Amino acid sequence: MAELLASGGTVEMARAVLDSGADAVYVGAKGWSRRRAQYEMGDEEVIASARYAKSLGKVLRVAFNTLPASHEIPLLLAKAEKFVGAGVRDFILTDVGAMKALSERFPGVQIHASVGCTIVNAEDAWFYKEAGATQVVTECRVDREEMRKIRQEVGVGLEVLVHATTCFTYLGRCTMSSYTRQEWRFDDEGKNHFLGSPNRGGLCYRVCLTEWDQRRGDGSLEAGGLVLPNLAYFLVDDIPDLLDLGVDTIKIQGREYSIPLVGRMVRFYRDLIDSYLRDRSSFRMEAWKERMAGIITERDAERREKTAGLISESGLSA
Ligand code: SF4
Q1: Burial class of residue 11 in the structure, from the number of CB atoms within 10 Å of its CB (0-12 exposed, 13-18 middle, 19+ buried)
Q2: With the CA atoms of 266, 162, 200 and 260 taken in that order, what torsion angle do they form, in degrees rounded to the nearest 10?
Q3: Which of 59, 166, 167, 192 has the fewest CB atoms lying closer than 10 Å?
Q4: For 221-231, how does the pLDDT look when each residue is reduced to its tens digit (9 = 90+)?
Q5: Could you tell me the distance, in angstroms and rounded to a whole number, from the CA of residue 226 to the centre of ligand 1?
Q6: CA distance 105 to 284
Q7: Homologous superfamily in CATH for domain 3-169+229-284
Q8: Among 178, 204, 304, which is best to mutate for testing ligand 1, by the most ligand atoms less than 8 A from CB?
Q9: Global pTM?
């Protein structure tokens, strides 16, 4: 049966998503995931949350989904060793070198190649499988035929994001934010914490969502007030097909939202999945879409507020 995976930005959120019906929760190790420190966890918090997940027969997955420098690989392995020693067996990575190093150091751990790997075809999936990935997250624009091919030909787990926001570029490939404001500091372990670069473990200021001018080569204005596409997507309609296809994990994002809202999101997807699996032939989507509309309204309101704050932090005007 497909696993429902949701985000745990704090210890409280991790508990809430597991209590609301998620089979697994992913958390960011501080400085090593694509969110600001406020939505990441210190080592002891990761370990406490992993124990809680285990007590329920569920899974905690640690995100190390940044692009580390060479000197950071040993730091990543040392942190992973601490988590593996505490019983964590599941990780999310983007960097292929780090993936290979982790799988060789800790044989048997589960490694999910994150959406930031931009896996769009079976050859990509083969590449990450050979680097140690046991499951791949397909890029959010990949269609079901491509997913079927990956699943049948590559023999690797398949994970699909059904509730997330796309980026102007492929997810994980944007560097715009780091051009507006970038700061960094080294922690006691020697890890560089970047602000302004989500790819290096800091936060993104969502500068794509401010208004931009497009200028000609001579500097004259061609178009003003342009906002780059960065759209939320909810593949609610696709969930029955994804379950029929046999996807291994259905993932929903949401570390930045309030805990009650994240809890409601998880409960919605849990109920929908269970309802479909209970009786596929009489399942009807209409009522679920109505229920989802309320969640989307709440989610959009929280996101707008967060986005305005981030753009203002970047130094650009919202
Ligand atoms: S600036 Fe926009 S497109 Fe770039 S990473 Fe941030 S949200 Fe995505």
Answers
A1: middle
A2: -20
A3: 166
A4: 999 999 888 88
A5: 15
A6: 47
A7: Phosphoenolpyruvate-binding domains (3.20.20.60)
A8: 204
A9: 0.94
What is the reported pLDDT for 318?
58
The single residue listed with the structure tokens 């020697």 is 190
Of 37, 27, 9, 70, the residue nearest 193 (C-alpha): 37
Question: How many whole angstroms from 58 Cα to the centroid of ligand 1?
Answer: 32
> If DSSP codes are grouped into helix, strand and coil, which group holds residue 29?
strand
| % of the chain beyond a pLDDT of 70 | 99
Q: Is the CB of 178 under 6 A from ligand 1?
A: no
By DSSP bridging, strand 110-113 and strand 157-165 are unpaired
User: In angstroms, rounded to a whole number, what is the distance separating the alpha carbons of residues 88 and 75?
Assistant: 17
Q: Locate the domains of the chain by residue range.
A: 3-169+229-284
Contacts for 176 with CB less than 8 Å, ≥ 6 apart = 168, 207, 208
Which structure tokens are listed for 257? 């939202």
Helix (H, G, I), strand (E, B) or coil at 70: helix
Place of tokens 């609301």: 20
Residue 177 CB less than 6 A away from ligand 1: yes
| N-to-C CA span, the chain | 44
Residue having the nearest C-alpha atom to atom 4 of ligand 1 = 174
pLDDT at 197 (0 to 100) = 84
Q: Name the burial class of residue 269, with classes exposed (0-12), middle (13-18) and buried (19+) by CB atoms within 10 angstroms of its CB.
A: buried
C-alpha–C-alpha distance, residues 271 and 291, integer Å: 11
Q: Under a CB-based contact definition with an 8 Å cutoff, are residues 132 and 104 in contact?
A: yes
